[in-house]
Design a protein that fits this description.
Length: 302
């Protein structure tokens, strides 16, 4: 299939998915599933019977791990890999107009209270469905490349990319300390952009945020890890944490209530080839090598 040129650059990454996980956990956890529909059967890995069996189960948790979203119910689990163009909509009630190409829908009943561990930034949000509402989670996907895995208790079903050995620590995981980072990065001698996008090394970063992190660290994307001085390895760690945290803070303000839209216009370099570098004022370089866009400043990244 031929993809629109900007598709890979719009792939959801850690900051986008962190907002979704926080918001959907706050909005729908604690509710019981009252209906499930899958008009796009290719999107769903699971049988109609397994889908039906979700009805009546209470959602206890909605969280992100790497580029995957996980829903934990009383008994079963669901994993969502949005891939390139999968997007989630939060409809306050079933009457809200469905987006085109809605491939999966889950409707929830009322609840007595929001989950106790809901993220603080969601408290009192205007978009939050009231506890007596019947909100819907809707999944749309223009390229239909994303997948939704139904994982009933006791059924072995592979979720490619989500295995223990396939995914390193999350890039924002507090357990990924600077010491762990220094130890893990030694095993990877190659180019920094590829390193950051390697989910086995660190999970959650893709094409857009790898460019942003490298700009913040003042390191070029094609620079080899093996050439970095010890302080540069530490700077890369600090830049990764700061860049992701700043993006999450921006997206909390910008994304809700339209969780199905992706906000990228605040990025410093990614997809800004030919524009002025916000740090040094020189022109940003952009390449399309390997089928994806790489943007960096050759004047202030070394
Ligand atoms: Zn610059």
């Amino acid at each position: 299939m031929r993809l629109p040129p900007d598709t890979i650059d719009n792939m959801p990454e850690l900051p986008d998915l962190a907002i979704l996980a926080d918001a959907f956990h706050a909005a729908i956890s604690g509710r019981v599933v009252v209906a499930v529909e899958a008009p796009g059967p290719l999107t769903v890995r699971g049988t109609p019977r397994e889908l039906d069996a979700l009805v009546g189960q209470r959602l206890s948790s909605f969280y992100r791990r790497g580029k995957f979203l996980w829903l934990e119910f009383d008994r079963d689990r669901v994993a969502i890999n949005a891939m390139l163009t999968g997007r989630l909509q939060l409809a306050r009630d079933p009457g809200v107009k469905k987006p085109q190409k809605t491939l999966f829908m889950m409707r929830f009943g009322p609840r007595t209270q929001p989950p106790a561990d809901a993220a603080g930034w969601t408290f009192g949000a205007e978009w939050m469905p009231s506890d007596d509402a019947t909100p819907e989670l809707r999944y749309r996907d223009a390229t239909q490349m994303g997948k939704i895995y139904i994982l009933p208790a006791g059924v072995e079903r592979l979720v490619p990319g989500a295995g223990e050995s396939e995914m390193g620590p999350d890039a924002d995981d507090p357990a990924l300390t600077i010491d762990t980072w220094r130890a893990r990065i030694k095993r990877h001698p190659g180019e920094l952009k590829n390193l950051l996008r390697n989910q086995e090394f660190v999970a959650g970063i893709g094409n857009a945020y790898s460019d942003e992190i490298l700009h913040a660290a003042r390191l070029q994307p094609s620079r080899k890890r093996g050439t970095l001085a010890a302080e540069e390895i530490d700077e890369l760690y600090a830049a990764m944490r700061a860049t992701l945290a700043q993006a999450v803070a921006v997206l909390r303000e910008r994304v809700p209530p339209t969780f199905e839209t992706e906000v990228r216009d605040f990025l410093a370099v990614h997809n800004r080839g030919g524009e002025d570098c916000p740090r040094c004022g020189m022109r940003i370089t952009q390449t399309e090598a390997g089928g994806f866009t790489t943007s960096y400043c050759r004047h202030c990244q070394r």
